[in-house]
């Protein structure tokens, strides 16, 4: 029996700067807003989330249309399967201006960007938002992205993580290159800053040579919050070493609870306090004024809005394999698994969820594009709050990444119907208590590596 837990659950809103949410049929729901190319669309959603005391509004991203299927973007464009991806920093800049407390997270790739660019971008966002920035660290996954950056093929799996390890190390050094108190701003003497507290990083590695310093001073959070969602063994090790928030894609509570224990153990093995890292499964929430209303909405989302070809196009994107030569009812064989490098982890997770049921491409694809890709909490606000409480108290998670079935209605329903019930149970704060995202998450401000080194040298010479 797990020990009952005190404290708040972490709430993250899963966003796309796109025509759809992560649920690829969301654009077809009758009440879905269609002004997703207007900054007011994102500001409206952000205000709703801040009203519900969400910790973070996080944007997923890809650097290409889904175009692996049939070696063409046509089907993704035809069926609205995430063909639009706006620039995230432009979107988050608009959101920062419309909110005060909500965390602002964005996905940036370690494969096609450079460390200095990413360090400067997120440090700037952290300053302009007064300490609310978060970076989702990803290694880009497919050849469609590679071809948009003048590369024929993406790096193989382990090489991507080798690069990512060095990338985040360099970014961390750049964020630390200005110490706290470096800016003096003495107009009378003419001294702006103390050069002894602004450092070159002089990094020379396998992938990067970066001199520094960063052109942005140390930020309100010290370093922006780090998000990671790696599912492979290497990805989980990377998350254990670097992440403050770990997003998971587990299909059921049984799988989520096992993943939770395994990941917490990896965090401890890496020398970090496992309680300081939040593990957050993605879930869909379908709330209704009555249980029957919620179930009626669920039936629409499950059965009516996602075209099968869109599902296959998205499966092709995530596995970097062209499924256009396959039938939806083809059985997923060992031969197929062995020939598609990006599919094994997905197959293992889905098999644990469906048990002895024959796994077809249709079922596998539906776990990437429909409501089957995550657990669903369906019912009244009271019923959903109790389900969330049970997951949290049983140590299956530290909170949730809420995926929207449609925008903005899914979050409006959640804040109106579910959040009051969560507050009754003491699971969600009544108001924000911190001034930065780290403070609202209960995370300490990281020490500056250059300051630590100087202090250690002083002790050694004393």
Summarize the structure.
This protein has helices at residues 39-51, 74-78, 88-98, 115-128, 143-147, 157-176, 233-242, 253-269, 291-303, 308-319, 334-339, 344-354, 361-369, 381-393, 409-424, 437-441, 449-461, and strands at residues 10-16, 56-60, 103-109, 133-138, 183-186, 191-193, 203-204, 209-210, 225-228, 245-248, 278-287, 376-379, 399-403.
Could you give the topology of this structure?
Elements: E1 10-16, H1 39-51, E2 56-60, H2 74-78, H3 88-98, E3 103-109, H4 115-128, E4 133-138, H5 143-147, H6 157-176, E5 183-186, E6 191-193, E7 203-204, E8 209-210, E9 225-228, H7 233-242, E10 245-248, H8 253-269, E11 278-287, H9 291-303, H10 308-319, H11 334-339, H12 344-354, H13 361-369, E12 376-379, H14 381-393, E13 399-403, H15 409-424, H16 437-441, H17 449-461
Parallel strand pairs: 1-2, 1-13, 2-3, 3-4, 4-9, 9-10, 10-11, 11-12, 11-13
Antiparallel strand pairs: 5-6, 7-8
Helix pairs in contact: 1-3, 4-6, 6-7, 7-8, 10-13, 14-15
GO molecular function, one term: oxidoreductase activity
InterPro entries: Diverse_substr_monoxygenases, Luciferase-like_dom, Luciferase-like_sf, NTA_MOA
Family: Belongs to the NtaA/SnaA/DszA monooxygenase family.
Describe the structure.
The chain is an alpha/beta fold. The chain has two domains: 10-306 and 375-461, Luciferase-like domain (TIM Barrel); 309-369, no CATH class. Helices cover 42% and strands 14% of the residues. The protein has 17 helices and 13 strands. Helix 1 crosses helix 3 (88-98), helix 7 (233-242) crosses helix 8 (253-269) and helix 10 (308-319) packs across helix 13 (361-369). It starts with 9 loop residues before the first strand and ends with a helix.
């Amino acid at each position: 029996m797990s020990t009952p837990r005190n404290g708040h659950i972490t709430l993250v809103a899963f966003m796309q700067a796109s025509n759809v949410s992560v649920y690829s049929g969301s654009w077809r729901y009758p009440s879905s807003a269609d002004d997703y190319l207007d900054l007011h669309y994102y500001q409206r959603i952000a205000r709703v989330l801040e009203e519900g005391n969400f910790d973070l509004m996080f944007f997923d991203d890809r650097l290409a249309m889904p175009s692996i299927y049939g070696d063409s973007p046509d089907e993704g464009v035809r069926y609205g399967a995430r063909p639009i991806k706006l620039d995230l920093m432009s979107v988050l800049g608009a959101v920062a201006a419309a909110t005060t407390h909500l965390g602002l997270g964005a996905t940036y790739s370690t494969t096609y960007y450079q460390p200095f660019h990413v360090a400067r971008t997120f440090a700037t966002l952290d300053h302009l938002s007064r300490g609310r920035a978060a970076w989702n660290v990803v290694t880009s996954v497919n050849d469609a992205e590679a071809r948009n950056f003048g590369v024929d093929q993406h790096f193989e799996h382990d090489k991507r993580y080798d690069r990512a390890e060095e990338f985040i190390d360099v970014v961390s050094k750049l964020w630390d290159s200005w110490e706290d108190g470096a800016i003096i701003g003495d107009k009378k003497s003419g001294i702006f800053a103390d050069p002894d507290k602004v450092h070159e990083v002089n990094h020379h590695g396998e992938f990067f040579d970066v001199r520094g310093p960063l052109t942005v001073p140390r930020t309100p959070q010290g370093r922006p919050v780090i998000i990671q969602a790696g599912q492979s063994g290497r990805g989980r090790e990377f998350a254990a070493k670097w992440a403050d928030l770990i997003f998971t894609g587990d299909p059921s509570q049984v799988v989520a609870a096992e993943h939770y224990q395994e990941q917490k153990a990896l965090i401890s093995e890496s020398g970090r306090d496992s309680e300081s890292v939040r593990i957050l499964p993605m879930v869909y929430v379908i709330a209704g004024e009555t249980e029957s209303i919620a179930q009626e909405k669920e039936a629409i989302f499950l059965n009516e809005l996602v075209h099968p070809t869109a599902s296959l196009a998205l499966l092709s994107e995530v596995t970097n394999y062209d499924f256009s030569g396959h039938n939806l009812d083809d059985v997923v064989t060992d031969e197929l698994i062995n020939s598609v490098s990006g599919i094994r982890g997905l197959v293992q997770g889905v098999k644990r969820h469906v048990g002895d049921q024959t796994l077809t491409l249709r079922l596998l694809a539906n776990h990437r594009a429909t409501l089957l890709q995550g657990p669903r909490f369906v019912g009244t606000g009271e019923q959903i709050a109790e389900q969330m409480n049970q997951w949290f108290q049983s140590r299956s998670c530290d909170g949730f990444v809420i995926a929207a079935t449609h925008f903005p209605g899914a979050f409006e329903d959640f804040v109106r119907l579910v959040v009051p019930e969560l507050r009754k149970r003491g699971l969600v704060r009544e108001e924000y208590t911190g001034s930065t995202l780290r403070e609202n998450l209960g995370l300490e401000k990281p020490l500056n590596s250059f300051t630590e080194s100087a202090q250690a040298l002083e002790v050694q010479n004393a």
